[in-house]
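hey
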């Protein structure tokens, strides 16, 4: 082994390492000093004037293994602390986020016919859950409205049926006791029984129609017909019974409609009959047709007593009667306009009422024009 002699160092105090005598290529070594310092050596053989020199470069570095151990400790602490933070923040956020869902779940579980007035609390950010709560509240509101209508429908139907049944029972009771021996009383009782039976039959027929319509069991027999034919038939039949009224119609000779003829005729009869009930002779009732952008428009107008503006939205409700005293005198169950509205809706049309007290009423119908 060749004797090595240190001839120069620019930083005394560094420990030099042995350099292999036959090494011709650069080599790198490291030497640990203490527990937190390491020296990296870089060796190189250099020949100058046929003499071999050894160059060694060294630099101190912190011991990475020490920092590795510290890093591992801090890493474990950070992970543990992060898991704790995530756990509690997750619990908080989940309770915050899932609160609307819990509210919806509770509201749905408690939803009964006796608690339809309850609503889901709506608060928090404008997100999908808030929108879902609004939709649920809207659904509950519709259920509440429909349930109230159903309760009223059942109550009104029971009330309407109770009256003729009471009259029938009273007359039968009278005949059973002593009316059979007096022909005049017998004839009067039989006429009353016949009239009340007809009223009950009319009521039941209308109720069955509305029930079928609600369950979408009504089958429309659509065909193309001219409005001139329909209007003339309705006017002629009306004047046969109410000759003291003036009922006219106005439409184009070529105006046609593709719909259920008998159903549309029933609608016009209902509206015209209402106009007669609430108009004094001559009434001046007019049926008119006009093509509009939305479809075929049919208008029935009169110069009767009119309808208060506050009640216009209610006249199509079942069993609703604008003037109870007038209805008792003229007859009627309060189902006609609701049936008319149902028929028009079954034809995908619209029906609205316009009126003022003392100035008459106008019922406007719009039906889609369908060829075929």
């Amino acid at each position: 082994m060749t004797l090595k002699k240190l001839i120069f160092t620019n930083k005394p105090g560094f420990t030099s390492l042995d350099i292999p005598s036959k090494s011709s290529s650069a080599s790198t070594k490291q030497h640990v000093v203490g527990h937190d310092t390491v020296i990296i050596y870089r060796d190189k053989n250099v020949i100058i004037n046929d003499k071999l020199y050894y160059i060694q470069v060294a630099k101190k570095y912190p011991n990475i293994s020490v920092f590795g151990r510290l890093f591992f400790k801090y890493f474990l602490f950070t992970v543990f602390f992060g898991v704790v933070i995530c756990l509690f923040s997750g619990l908080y956020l989940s309770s915050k986020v899932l609160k609307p869902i819990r509210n919806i779940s509770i509201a749905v579980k408690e939803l009964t016919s006796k608690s339809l007035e309850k609503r889901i609390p709506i608060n928090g950010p404008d997100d999908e859950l808030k929108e879902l709560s609004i939709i649920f509240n809207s659904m509950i509101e519709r259920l509440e409205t429909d349930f109230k209508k159903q309760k009223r429908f059942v109550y009104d139907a029971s009330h309407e049926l109770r009256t003729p049944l009471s009259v029938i029972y009273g007359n039968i009771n009278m005949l059973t006791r002593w009316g059979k021996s007096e022909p005049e009383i017998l004839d009067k009782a039989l006429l009353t029984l016949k009239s009340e039976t007809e009223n009950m039959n009319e009521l039941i027929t209308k109720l069955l129609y509305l029930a079928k319509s609600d369950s979408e069991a009504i089958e429309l027999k659509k065909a193309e017909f001219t409005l001139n034919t329909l209007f003339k038939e309705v006017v002629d039949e009306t004047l046969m019974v109410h000759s003291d009224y003036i009922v006219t119609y106005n439409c184009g000779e070529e105006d046609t409609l593709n719909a259920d003829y008998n159903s549309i005729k029933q609608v016009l009869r209902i509206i015209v009959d209402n106009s007669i009930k609430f108009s004094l002779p001559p009434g001046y009732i007019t049926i008119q047709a006009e093509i509009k952008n939305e479809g075929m428009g049919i208008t029935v107008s009169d110069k009767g007593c009119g309808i208060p503006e506050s009640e216009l939205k209610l006249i199509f409700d079942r069993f609703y009667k604008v003037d109870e005293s007038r209805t008792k005198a003229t007859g009627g169950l309060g189902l006609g306009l609701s049936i008319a509205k149902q028929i028009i809706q079954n034809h995908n049309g619209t029906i609205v009422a316009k009126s003022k007290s003392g100035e008459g009423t106008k019922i406007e119908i719009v039906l889609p024009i369908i060829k075929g």
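The helical segments are 64-109, 128-177, 183-214, 227-241, 261-277, 324-330, 336-346. Residues 222-367 form a domain with the Heat Shock Protein 90 fold (CATH 3.30.565.10).
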